[in-house]
Design goal:
This protein has 252 residues and is α/β, with parallel strands linked by helices. It has 10 helices and 8 strands. The protein has an 8-stranded mixed sheet, sandwiched between helices. Strand 2 (54-58), helix 5 (83-94) and strand 3 (99-103) form a beta-alpha-beta unit. Helix 4 packs parallel to helix 5 and helix 4 (40-50) packs parallel to helix 10. The structure holds zinc ion. Residues 169-170, 172-173, 240, 243, 245-246 line the site of zinc ion.
């Protein structure tokens, strides 16, 4: 690290759990953030400001006025611009040392797999079940830790699925495909702006912890926020031994 980096990250370096060694791990790491909306905004802001070396930011949408209530990466001046480029511009103003790879598409198929393979940590900040399951399958295939977040109305949820661990559940173990509760989208149901910020910030915290290797990850648990009562609950997420996505991968 140069003098500028030592100063910029000094409040991390002061933490014994991070130190220079942990900060250097962040600078060497690549995070993939899928979705530059309500969750992806705070997640990307914290990852970039905290010193993640490379941040791939993928979103196929462009910024519209209804986004600005909660998607804090974007500005009035970005209306109509691709969210990936708008986000990259904001992040560059905060930390030009973070290399942002703007991907102006909703990643799927081989492109999704390639980006997951390149990443050290994957943050699912998307807003639909099809994408969530596709991201999960790619993370299981390439054994990449997945930090999943969701926010709707006043409710939030966060979980880490670390398929590098043999006993870890995957997203499909928790939410089997086909049994999906009807899709509830912010566009229809509404969402309380700060709830997306709380959830996205926790996703960033878990991603940073995983890269640094400090603390206990939010793995094997689903953290649930009731933003109206402002109460948290945590429930255990067991692995489904019959899960079609992850059960075969770790078979002896
Ligand atoms: Zn599974």
């Amino acid at each position: 690290m140069n003098d500028d980096q030592l100063l910029r990250y000094s409040r991390h370096i002061l933490l014994p759990q991070i130190g220079i060694e942990g900060q250097e791990k962040l600078l060497a790491a690549r995070a993939l953030v899928l979705g530059a909306g309500g969750l992806g905004s705070p997640a990307a802001l914290y990852l970039a400001s905290a010193g993640i070396g490379t941040l791939a930011l993928a979103d196929g949408d462009s910024v519209d006025l209804t986004n600005l209530q909660r998607q804090i990466l974007h500005r009035v001046s970005s209306l109509g611009r691709s969210k990936a480029l708008s986000g990259a511009a904001t992040l560059a103003e905060i930390n030009p040392g973070c290399r942002v790879v703007a991907i102006e598409e909703r990643l799927a198929g081989a492109r999704l797999e390639e980006e997951v393979r390149l990443a050290d940590v994957v943050l699912d900040c998307s807003d639909n079940f099809a994408t969530r399951h596709a991201i999960n399958r790619a993370c299981v295939k390439f054994a990449r830790p997945l930090i999943s977040g969701a926010a709707i109305r006043f409710d939030g949820q966060i979980a880490v699925f670390d398929s590098r661990r043999a006993d870890a559940p995957c997203y499909h173990c928790l939410f089997p495909e086909g049994e999906d509760a009807e899709e509830v989208r912010c566009a229809v149901m509404g969402v309380f702006a700060p709830v997306t910020g709380i959830v996205g910030a926790i996703q960033a915290a878990e991603a940073l912890k995983l890269v640094i290797g400090c603390g206990t990850p939010l793995a094997g648990r689903l953290l649930l926020l009731d933003g109206l009562a402002m109460e948290w609950r945590s429930i255990a997420v067991p692995r489904d031994p019959a899960c079609p996505v992850c059960s075969t991968r770790n078979a002896p």
